[in-house]
Amino acid sequence: MNTKKLAKAFGGKSFIITGAAGGLGSCMARLLAPHWSSALLLDMNEAGLAQIAGELAGRSAGAIATRTVDLTSEKSIDDALKDLPSGLNPPDVLVNNAGVSIMRLAGSQPLSEYRMMMEVNYFAVVNLVNRFLPAMLSRRSGRILTIASGSGVLANYGGSAYCGSKFATVGFMEALRQELAGTGVKANCVLLPTVMTDFHRKVLGGEFGDMAKGLPTITPEAAAAELLSQAAGNREIIAFTPTLKAGLIANGVAPAVLRLAMTLNGYMLNKKRGRAPLSLLSRG
Predict the structure, then answer these.
(1) What are phi and psi of 202, to 5 degrees?
(2) Quick one: 135 and 60 in the same domain?
(3) Could you tell me if 215 and 156 are in contact, meaning their C-beta atoms sit under 8 angstroms apart?
C-alpha cells in the first residue's frame, strides 16, 4: 500500500463509512485512520463498532464516532445521522460499503429477501447520496465511494436477488458519475471481486458451494488496499483480480460468447441438481 498516495488523497478528510464493524469496512478504516480528520463508523453490529473504534483510537489522526444503524429503516438512518459534527455534515468522503447477500434460486426466494437486499445494497446508497450530495455540490468538493460488485455487471448462478440489487447500484453510480462531471465531486464505483468473508465461507459450505469453489478469492485486507489505492488515483470504475478483469473485457468485446459460456455453466449446475431434464439445445 502506497501510504504517501493514500495520505495525499485522503489526508485531512472526514469520512462516513457504512458496514464498518468488520470485513472490508473495518479493513478500510484501519488503512484510513492515520490520515483522516474524523470519521463516523456505521453498522448494525454495536459490539463490532466498539471493537474497531477501540482498536483505532491510539493511531487515528482524528476523532472517531460510532452509531448503530439499520439501513433497511429510514428512521434508523435518520437517528444515526442526527446532530453530526460540522466536519461530517457533509463528510468529505462517503463510503457506501454495507451490503448483504442471501443466495437462493429464483422462485424459491421470498420477496422479503429481495426487498431487504434492495434496501441495503441500493436504496441505502441512494438515501445517503441524497442526504450529502447537495452540500458537496455547494462546496464543490467531496467523494462518493460505493462498494458495488462484479456481480453488478456479470450475474452469477443463484444470485438473482443479489445481482439485481448490485446491477441497480452500478447503474445508479454510472449515471451519478456523468452528473458530477466538472462539479468537483468525485464518484468511484468498486466492482468488487470475490472476497473471502464470512459470507463467502457460508456459500462454500452451502447449496452453492460447487459454484463458489472454483472462484478465485482475495482477502478483505488486500481488497481494501487495492480499492483505496485506485480511488486515490481517481479511477472511476475500480476493478481488480485477473479473473474479474477478463470477465469485464469479455463482456465488452464478445458479450454473446460470454453469455453462452455462462449459460453452459448454468446448465451444468442445473444438471447436477436435476433441474435440467431437457438438452441445452432443446426447443421445448
Answers:
(1) -65, -40
(2) yes
(3) no
Per-residue pLDDT of the chain (284 residues; tens, 9 = 90+): 688 999 999 999 999 999 999 999 999 999 999 999 999 999 999 999 999 999 999 999 999 999 999 999 999 999 999 999 888 999 999 999 999 999 999 999 999 999 999 999 999 999 999 999 999 999 999 999 999 999 999 999 999 999 999 999 999 999 999 999 999 999 999 999 989 887 778 877 888 888 778 778 899 999 999 999 999 999 999 999 999 999 999 999 999 999 999 999 999 999 999 999 998 877 65
- CA 281 remoteness from chain centre: 37
- Residue 248 domain-assigned (yes or no): no
Cell of 246: 477478463
Axis crossing angle, helix 220-232 with helix 23-32, rounded to the nearest 10 = 50
Cβ pair 93, 40 in contact under 8 A = no
The CATH code of the domain that includes 174 is: 3.40.50.720
In a domain, residue 38? The reply is: yes
Residue at 34 is within a domain: yes
Pair 260, 214 in one domain? no
Torsion of CA 223, 177, 83, 37, to 10 degrees: 50
Domain membership of residue 247 (yes or no) is no
Domain containing residue 264: 254-284
Number of domains in the chain: 2
Q: What is the dihedral of CA 73, 100, 121, 110, to 10 degrees?
A: -80
**Cα dist from 181 to 20, 137, 187, 190, 230, whole Å:** 29, 11, 9, 18, 18
pTM: 0.94
At residue 10's C-alpha, the angle toward residues 31 and 223, to 5°, is: 40
User: Based on the domain organization, do 205 and 270 belong to the same domain?
Assistant: no
